[in-house]
Write a sequence for this structure.
């Protein structure tokens, strides 16, 4: 830490003004960064929402899955082909 007790009054006033200017500049930068963080966070949330919507099945997919029927399990390709070709 700097020992300001050795500074003249004029130099102290100059240091005080410079320090206040630095604080003002940093506060201005902080406001800008806070706004940038807010916008970026909103963008992140919008991207997450879009991804969630893509990953969630729609009604058509849900209905297809609920109404799906199984054709069974077959040991060979020929058995599966025969079952698919039958009229049953």
């Amino acid at each position: 830490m700097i020992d300001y007790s050795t500074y003249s009054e004029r130099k102290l006033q100059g240091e005080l003004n410079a320090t206040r200017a630095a604080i003002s500049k940093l506060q201005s930068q902080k406001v800008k960064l806070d706004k940038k963080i807010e916008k970026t966070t909103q963008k992140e949330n919008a991207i997450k929402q879009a991804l969630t919507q893509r990953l969630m099945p729609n009604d058509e997919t849900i209905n297809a899955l609920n109404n799906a029927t199984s054709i069974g399990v077959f040991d060979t390709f020929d058995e599966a082909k025969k079952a698919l070709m039958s009229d049953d």
